[in-house]
C-alpha cells in the first residue's frame, strides 16, 4: 500500500484553484488575499507554514481565513496562533485527538468562527461546552450559531467540570 502525504512546502509549486473572483497579485507576484484554503490535501503537519505563507502572500499578517478541513492533522499547530487577524478557522474532518488542543486558540483575539466536527475530539463528553468556555468570543461553531442558551449551558458545564486553580498563599508572606 502506497501512502501519499502532502507537505506545506508543496504549496510553492502549486497553482491556486480559480474561485468566483480572480486572484489579485502584487508587483512582486505574491497573492493579495486574506484567505488561504488548504482543504482536502492530506496534510499531517504544518511544518514551514509561516515561511510558505510569507512566500505566497504579500501581507500574511492580514490573513483572516484559513481552511485546513479534511486533512490529517492530529493537533492544532501553534503556528496558527501567530495570525492575530484570523477570524475564521476550519479544522473539521481532521484527526485531532485531544480536546485540550483548543486551548491554544484562546490567544486569537478576532477568532469568531471555528469548525472542529469530524475530529475524534467531537466524541468527548462536553465537547461543545468546553470549546465555548475556552473561546468565549466565538459566534459560530461547527457551522452553527452560538446562542445565549449555548453560552449559559457552557457556563453551567464549566462550573460543574472545570476545577478552578487554587491560589496558594505562602506562610511567610503573612
From TrEMBL:
<keyword id="KW-0677">Repeat</keyword>
<dbReference type="InterPro" id="IPR001611">
    <property type="entry name" value="Leu-rich_rpt"/>
</dbReference>
<dbReference type="InterPro" id="IPR032675">
    <property type="entry name" value="LRR_dom_sf"/>
</dbReference>
<keyword id="KW-0433">Leucine-rich repeat</keyword>
<protein>
    <recommendedName>
        <fullName>Leucine-rich repeat-containing protein 51</fullName>
    </recommendedName>
</protein>
<keyword id="KW-0963">Cytoplasm</keyword>
<dbReference type="Pfam" id="PF14580">
    <property type="entry name" value="LRR_9"/>
</dbReference>
Amino acid at each position: 500500500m502506497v501512502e501519499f502525504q502532502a507537505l506545506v512546502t508543496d504549496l510553492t509549486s502549486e497553482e491556486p484553484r480559480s474561485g468566483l473572483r480572480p486572484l489579485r497579485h502584487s508587483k512582486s507576484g505574491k497573492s493579495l488575499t486574506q484567505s488561504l484554503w488548504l482543504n482536502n490535501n492530506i496534510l499531517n503537519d504544518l511544518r514551514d507554514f509561516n515561511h510558505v505563507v510569507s512566500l505566497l502572500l504579500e501581507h500574511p499578517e492580514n490573513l483572516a481565513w484559513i481552511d485546513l478541513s479534511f486533512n490529517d492533522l492530529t493537533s492544532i499547530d501553534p503556528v496558527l496562533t501567530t495570525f492575530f487577524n484570523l477570524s475564521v478557522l476550519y479544522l473539521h474532518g481532521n484527526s485531532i485527538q485531544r480536546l485540550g488542543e483548543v486551548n491554544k486558540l484562546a490567544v486569537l483575539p478576532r477568532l469568531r468562527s471555528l469548525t472542529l466536527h469530524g475530529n475524534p475530539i467531537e466524541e468527548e463528553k462536553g465537547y461543545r461546552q468546553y470549546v465555548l468556555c475556552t473561546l468565549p468570543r466565538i459566534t459560530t461553531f461547527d457551522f452553527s450559531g452560538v446562542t445565549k442558551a449555548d453560552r449559559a449551558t457552557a457556563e453551567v458545564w464549566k462550573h460543574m467540570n472545570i476545577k478552578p486553580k487554587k491560589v496558594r498563599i505562602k506562610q511567610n508572606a503573612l
